[in-house]
Amino acid sequence: KFTIQDFFKLGIMKDIPDLLPNREDGTVLNIGSGNKTIPGTVPLHYPEWDADFDPIPWSSNSIAQIHAYHFLEHIKNPVAVLHDMQRVLVKGGHINIVVPYYSSNLNAQDLDHKHNFCEDTWAALFRQHKYYEKNVLDWRLKIHANFIMAPSERNMCLYTQLEKV
Question: Which of 99, 102, 135, 139 could in theory staple to 116 by disulfide, Cβ–Cβ 3.0 to 4.6 A?
């Protein structure tokens, strides 16, 4: 079977990691779900849950996996929400994130977008203690996979999979 990883490796001459498989050993959240239904997930969305004011209503270390598609760019403090995702995630659990790429029309055309993301956003965030002394958080997330993908240049997105270690 020819996979997307095979296609990428042949096209760019670089290996990419296999994505972590869907977790079936616990609750899976679809945060900021809107009208994006994912079978087998628990949707968490406004107005029942307001990411700008409410913590994720699950206990620490209780969630197996989180999906967050076209969500983080719309909230006031994505760093706080990502840290709360880390709190509820079990060790070895992962977060699948899709956000518009900073230079795409997909990002620029929506006036509700509050933040920009690029391929180095997560790495810079997780090593923030080296640059900033304020608001240093204890990050236990690592980047498992990070891709810029698009059907056209104007619709580029950053696809990221983070794992709690």
Answer: 102
